[in-house]
């Protein structure tokens, strides 16, 4: 298992296909679950769906985004003990950034807006896998990439988390 990179990115697989990401992912040093054909286009997950997936997975982290009129503490609480969490493989997503369709990085987003990608800076590997499994059940197949471009991994609805963990490169 590779060390978690400085940054991991999760994006709906159909979104990656539209932007040429599947060809790039196929050339990665390591890959898992990449389909031969691009998946059908579907609606992007909303900010609300992403936050619900984080809660469902039991994850915590530091949001690098704001949701207009919404307190994120309940949806994405801070890590209670980062040093301990890291040492036990906890569910800390690190610093979380949402790429929201039509919004700049520093402007507050709305719960109903579509999320094109999610970035995790200094995450726990286990947390990103748990969040991806939870989100895939709502958003469809997801492509997970590391900042080095060396690994590409697909998490699909219905995947067995234990099986995924055996192949998870981070």
Describe the overall structure:
There is one protein chain. The chain is α/β, with parallel strands linked by helices. The radius of gyration is 15 Å and the shape is globular. The chain has six helices and seven strands.
Brief summary:
By secondary structure, the chain is α/β, with parallel strands linked by helices. The protein contains 6 helices and 7 strands, in the order E-H-H-E-H-E-H-E-E-H-E-E-H.
Keywords:
single chain; 170 residues; alpha/beta; seven-stranded mixed β-sheet; 6 helices; 7 strands; globular
What Rg is obtained from the alpha carbons, in whole angstroms?
Answer: 15 Å
Beta strand %: 15-25%
- Low-confidence runs: none
Main sheet: which strands, in order across?
2-7-6-1-5-4-3
Question: Secondary-structure blueprint of this entry?
Answer:
Layout: E1 7-12, H1 13-18, H2 21-26, E2 30-32, H3 47-57, E3 60-63, H4 82-87, E4 92-100, E5 115-121, H5 125-139, E6 142-146, E7 151-155, H6 161-167
Parallel strand pairs: 2-7, 3-4
Antiparallel strand pairs: 1-5, 1-6, 4-5, 6-7
Helix pairs in contact: 3-5
């Amino acid at each position: 298992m590779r060390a978690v990179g400085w940054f991991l990115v999760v994006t709906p697989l159909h979104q990656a296909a539209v932007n040429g990401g599947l060809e790039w992912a196929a050339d990665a040093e390591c890959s898992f679950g990449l389909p031969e054909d691009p998946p059908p286009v579907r609606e992007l997950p909303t900010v609300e769906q992403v936050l619900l997936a984080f809660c469902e997975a039991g994850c915590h982290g530091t949001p690098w985004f704001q949701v207009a009129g919404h307190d994120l503490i309940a949806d994405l609480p801070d890590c209670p003990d980062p040093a301990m969490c890291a040492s036990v493989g906890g569910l800390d997503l690190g610093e979380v950034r949402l790429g929201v369709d039509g919004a700049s990085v520093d402007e507050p987003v709305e719960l109903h807006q579509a999320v094109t990608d999610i970035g995790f800076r200094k995450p726990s590997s286990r947390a990103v896998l748990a969040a991806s499994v939870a989100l895939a059940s709502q958003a469809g197949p997801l492509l997970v990439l590391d900042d080095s471009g060396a690994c590409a991994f697909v998490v699909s609805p219905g995947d067995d988390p234990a099986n995924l963990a055996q192949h998870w490169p981070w």
